[in-house]
Structures are given as C-alpha cells and as structure tokens.
Specification:
single chain, 548 residues, mainly alpha, three-stranded mixed sheet, two-stranded antiparallel ribbon, 26 helices
Length: 548
C-alpha cells in the first residue's frame, strides 16, 4: 500500500475544512446533549460521520482509515478499559463482601454531610488516585464509592467529573506535562512551573464549585471552613511542588495535604446543618453497634492496597523493572497504518512518518496493578474467597459491556480523526486568530481532551503546534504549551470516555446524555476562566509567570 500524505485544508480553505472536520464532533454532541442517546449509539453515529469525512473529504484510503479506527479501539481496550474493569471490580468486591457498609459507617463518623463527603472523596481522594494512576481510575473508584454511600447517581458521577479537573494536568506521576515537554522541546520543569502558575488559581475554587453545584451558593457557605481548608491545602501544595520540584509530585502531595487538612479540621469543627439530597432519608450508618477500628481498617484495606500498588506502578524506576521482565512488553507495528501515513507542514516542520506502534505492556499497566491489589485484598475480606473474587470479575466485565463498547468506539474515533488530519485541521483553524491566539490556545487542549479523553494524548497531539504558533504570533511558547495542558483539564469532564466510565461506575449505563448535559455548563465555564487567565498572563499579568 502506498504512503498517504495528510492534508489539512482539502476543501478549498482552512475554515471550510475545519467546519467539515467538526461534523463528527457536532454529531456526537447532538446525540448526547439533545437526543439523550446511549453512549455507544452516539459514538457509532460519530464514527460513521468521521469515516465518511476522512475518506471523501480528506482522501484517506479506506484501508488506512479502517485500520486507524481499529488501532484506536484497541488502545481503548488496553490500557484504558483494563483500568476501568479492575477498578470497578475492586469496589464491587467490597460491596459483595459486606465491607462497604463499614466504609460507609467510617465516613459517616467523620461526616455524614453530603458536601463534605464529596470534597473528601471526589476531590481529595480522587486527586490522589489521579496522581498515582490516572486514565479513568479516579472517576471509576470515587464515583462508585459516592454511589455506594447513597449519592444519587447523577450527583455521584457529576461531582467526580467536576472534581477531577484539578489534578488532571499532573496525573499518573506527571505524564501529561512530561509528554508536553517531549513534543514541544521545552523543558518539562519549565512547563510544570507555568502550569503551576495557572491551575492552582482554578483548583482553589473547585471545592466551592462542587458544593455550589450540589446545593447552591448559600448552603455552600455553611461548610466554608472545609472548602477553604481543602482548596488552600491543595492549591498551595500544587503551586509549590509544580514550581519548585517538577511534574511528578504535585497531585500526590496536594491530595495528601488536603486529606490531612480535612481530617484535622473535622476533629474540631462540624457544620451546623447537615445537607442531604431532597427526599433522602436521614443517615442510618450509625444505627446499631459501630464498627471497630480493626473492621474499619480491614474494610478500607482494598483501597489502601490499591493506592499503594498504583503508586508503585507509577514510579518510573519500578515500571522499568517490570518492563525488563522477559515477555512483559510486546510491541508491534499496527498493520495497515504504521509507516503508511506521512505528516506534513504546518503540523511538523519537515515531512515525517506518523508511526503506529501498539504496546502491550501487560505487567506494568495500571490495570494490572489494580488487579494484583484486588487479589491481595481478598484475604482481608470476611468469608471471601479467590473463587468469588474471580466470579465477581467476570460479572463486572459483563455489566460493563456497553461502556467497554463506547470507550473503544470513542478512542477509535479519536485515532481516525488524528491519522486523517481532521484533528490537526481543527487545530490550525484556531491559529488563525492572530493576536487573540493566547485566549484560544487553551481551547486546543480542551478539544484534544474531549476527543481523546486524555490530557496526555491532547498534549501529544497539539503541543508541538502550540509552540510553533506561539512563536509566529509573538506569544510566550512555554505559556502556550502550558495552556494546552491547563485547558485540557476542563475538557476531561465532558469527554465521552470519562462519561462512560462514570456511568458504568454508578449504574447509569444508557444515561450518558443526561450526564453530558449536567457536566457541559461546568466545563464551558471553567474553560473560559482558563482562556481569560492565559490571555491576561500573556499581557498585563505577565508578571505572574515564573522567570528562568
């Protein structure tokens, strides 16, 4: 098969081409937001639109288009879905064993206020999981936990999606920023510091945002001390570690500081009025004898073991050790794509082959860490056996069959748009904004995460172009690259991949459209804040940025 050269304005101009390239996204948006379609139905429509646009509009050979879609779908299965299945499985085992009742009781002893539970679990604990594992783990675990505590499914899923904005840029031990540095040629330490001078200004308000989304501003003020402690502990630590240490520790340390701060506060302060959802019965977690300390520790042990395992798996040295095991990493060129697509200017300075290598690192994958952690936790579960654990894993996989399909379709769509040049066409259209480009630069990151569900993938897709465009329009290149990552975090909550994970974890499969409509206004509002901040930091607020 001949090598195919990407084109970026095949339909008479950049604007026209960008409008056509947006058709799959418009179709996806329409199906989710207006038709309230099931996730896999919306994804199928979007994939069909993308395939027709790629082949008929961009002239992509049918074989390469089909192979690029299958390549993306395979990436959706591994490692993304592998993480989702194992994370939900660990939660399901705690429910199946009866230990989740002790977890509910322990949290109720700390606080039975829904606002504080959301801050503690969705924001603080979720940020720790994002920092150690990323790639869907925090939403899968925390959404399931909140649903188990009695949150209505839409709020359990929605709160976790909103809370997951704060840590995304430094997720999985800083991988998004590290990739941004590799793609752009700018030091990841410099990018980390720039992101650390943007995201904390948003992160500090996320706890308040969560509470306002749940109960309104007036009732949110009732828990202002907890909001302030969580927000300031997290944002302050995020600023310090991202600026003076680098991209690897901001999430983990910020989450730990927020958790410790909240635990200390709740020992000396309680809200005057307990907030619960409308129509919800009063808490019954404290009825009957309270669980002993040993029972509480045992109940939390699966999640403690999970956190330790994903932390170890996230360490570069440990990951390298695992990958050194013979047969632990299987890499091969994806047939029908690798070596057959040529990227051209203006996306790259010189024409270069767009590679397609699939890596099956089954041992060092995050899902494997969770799987091993789950089996290690089985002996701590009362009257539980490895046979029941395996049966629970099979049942969990079956229940998640439609989210698995949705995620695979969405990743296939993203890869098809990337390899066809449609994603780059959309990106180039933003570069035509000239002097206003600093305002629009974060939108590229937002678009990339919406497409791929990953800040890492968005940075890999656009950060090289961000630097090149910034140099042309006179913008600080490091700020442009950093804003791609900062803007990307606000797109995470409406990414179909994230929504599929959240609905799977909360038993809302088939209601992806409702969750998308819930999260969309929050995503747009946060994105505009990052856009305005980036624009101001490129001009009158330039003094806010670090100097090297």
């Amino acid at each position: 098969m001949e090598v195919w050269h990407q084109v970026y304005a095949p339909l008479g101009g950049t604007v026209t081409s960008a409008l056509v390239a947006s058709i799959p996204l418009i179709a996806l948006f329409y199906m989710l937001a207006f038709r309230k379609s099931k996730g896999h139905h919306a994804a199928i429509v979007a994939v069909i639109c993308a395939f027709l646009c790629a082949v008929l509009g961009w002239g992509m050979p049918v074989g390469i288009a089909a192979s690029s879609f299958v390549y993306g779908a395979a990436f959706g299965l591994f490692p993304i879905i592998w993480i989702v299945i194992t994370a939900v499985w660990v939660y399901n085992m705690t429910v199946d064993s009866g230990d989740f009742e002790h977890i509910k009781s322990s949290i109720a002893q700390l606080t039975d206020d829904r606002r504080l539970q959301a801050i503690f679990i969705a924001f603080a604990f979720g940020s720790f999981l994002e920092g150690t594992a990323g790639f869907g783990t925090p939403v899968a675990i925390t959404a399931a936990m909140l649903a188990g505590l009695g949150f209505t499914p839409i709020y359990a899923a929605g709160m976790c999606l909103i809370a997951n904005t704060a840590p995304v840029a430094f997720g999985a031990i800083g991988v998004p920023v590290i990739v941004a540095g590799q793609v752009s040629g700018i030091s990841d330490l410099h990018i980390s510091a720039y992101v650390g001078h943007q995201l904390p200004l948003l992160s500090v308000f996320v706890p308040m945002w969560l509470c306002c989304a749940m109960c309104g501003f007036k009732r949110a003020l009732e828990v202002l001390p907890a909001i302030a402690v969580a927000g300031l502990c997290f944002a302050g630590s995020q600023f310090f570690f991202s600026t003076y240490h680098g991209p690897t520790l901001p999430d983990i340390m910020s989450a730990l500081c927020a958790i410790i701060g909240l635990m200390i506060l709740l020992r000396v302060w309680k809200p005057r009025a307990i907030f619960r959802f409308e129509g919800e019965a009063p808490a019954k977690a404290n009825d009957g004898p309270l669980p002993s300390t040993g029972e509480v520790v045992r109940a939390w042990s699966p999640f403690i073991i999970l956190a330790i395992m994903v932390f170890l798996w996230g360490l570069p040295q440990f990951k390298s050790l695992l990958n050194s095991v013979p047969g632990a990493v299987i890499t091969f060129a994806w047939p029908g794509v690798d070596g057959l697509v040529m990227r051209t200017a203006p996306i790259v300075a010189e024409p270069s082959v767009y590679g397609a290598k699939f890596t099956f690192n089954w041992l060092s994958a995050g899902g494997t860490a969770i799987l091993i952690g789950g089996f290690l936790a089985v002996p701590f579960m009362p009257k539980y056996s490895f046979g029941r654990a395996f049966g629970c894993l099979i049942k969990t996989t079956y229940v998640l069959r439609f989210p698995i399909l949705t995620i695979s379709l969405i990743l296939g769509l993203a890869y098809l748009m990337n390899y066809s040049g449609m994603s780059s066409t959309l990106g180039i259209a933003f570069t035509m904004t000239g002097a206003a480009y600093p305002f629009f630069a974060p939108l590229l990151g937002w678009l990339g995460v919406f497409l791929t569900g990953s800040d890492t993938s968005s940075n890999a897709l656009f950060c090289g172009m961000q630097r090149s465009t910034a140099e042309v329009v006179g913008m600080d290149p490091t700020l442009a690259v950093a804003s791609n990552s900062s803007g990307g975090v606000t797109g995470k909550m409406i990414s179909p991949q994230s929504i599929s994970v959240a609905t799977a974890a909360t038993g809302m499969v088939g209601q992806e459209g409702n969750l998308f409509r819930f999260a969309l206004p929050h995503s747009i509002a946060m994105t505009l804040i990052v856009c305005a901040l980036t624009y101001l930091q490129s001009g009158p607020l330039k003094w806010m940025l670090p100097s090297f």
